[in-house]
User: Fold this.
Amino acid sequence: MFYFLIYDFVFFIVLTLFFPFIWKKIRTEKDYPGTWKERFAIYRNNLKKGKRKRVWLHTVSVGEFLSITPLIEKLKNLDIDIIVSLTTKTGRKVAISKIPELKYIFFPFDFYPIMFKAISFLKPDIIVIVETEIWVNLIRISKRKNIPVVMINGRLSPKSFRRYRKLKFLTKKILPCLEKIAMRSESEKEKIISLGAKKEKIRICGSMKFDLAYQMGQTINSDEFKKSLNLGIDKKIIVFGSIHPEEEEEICKISKEIIENYPDWDVIIAPRFLDRSKIFNVLTEMKLPYVKRTEGKENFRILVVDTYGELNNFYSICEFAFVGGSLNRWGGQNPIEPIAFKKVVIYGKDNWHFFIEWEKIKKGGGGIEVNDFKQLKEKVLFLIKNENIRKKMGEVAYKILLQNTGATDINFDIIKETLGI
Assistant:
């Protein structure tokens, strides 16, 4: 009890001292659905529970939500009510655009009075935490109310593991309260056990991101999308996907070399954070010709994707891709998506967010890891010049994808078992 009081005291102090900054993040905006009131468990009456069992799914943002879309489609076939909470505004906006028929809320602050009010109002029959979000009050209040909490697609990056290890005095009291835990790998299973989870409650499920990538690979028509861009039959594309601001200048330098020396190749750059990107300034300063996706122009040498939700369409028409967030000490964006279209992936060394998935791709021969931008340039030019190698690696990558699907079914069974359906 003492540690829980300390947790709430610190949470309250942080919330109070940093509220002006927090307010800028949570305030209601006309371009984004939802209201700040939900962060304080103030809900509309239409969110009251009906007669059906209710599943509360919690995801942080876009990536986590998209990873469970195949799972949600399976859950929709059950006679249950589904409510999804997200932390970010962008995540909620994208989620609604993908599956509009669900109920959505912003995740409430994990301060005891607020979380108690949220759980008491929403009355879920099960709470499903996606990946490894250890919210102290969410879990302990649910335990007191006999509401099972399960963690699916659990992962522990080296960074998050170090952080949680410093809070082991809390995790060893909270993790045993989880009803079931599904981790991606054996190594992550051992890590979460060391933090206090009960061994008998843990299953190895693999990564649902492989399932999501496979599903997208089956639904996107690359030929039709390429026609919509009016690309010539001889044109070849390289995609620099999910590029972070710190990577943009070096990516533009590589793009300059490509368009100046390889007239049959065009470049597509997709910034990860459009609100923080300086890509247009960099391209202008380097006097590189570019067009924006929103301009709708068909002829380009460099296309900047200034929209959300289209990156996989561009992966489907490329020859190969570099996935960003992996050469700026951030931890890497999703390297699985391109291989769903039989495209070889280049990925940076800073890949701890997707370490398990990337190790399978790299060791299997479906991807190339680089240590810096010099190596990235070398590997990009190598793949441009070697069509047979890049196509062979793309085929190998796709086989790796197929070998690692199935996590969605495991997590679906865990939820059904816990619900007693």
Q: What stands out?
A: The longest helix spans residues 387-403. The chain has a mean pLDDT of 95. The two ends are 35 Å apart (CA to CA).
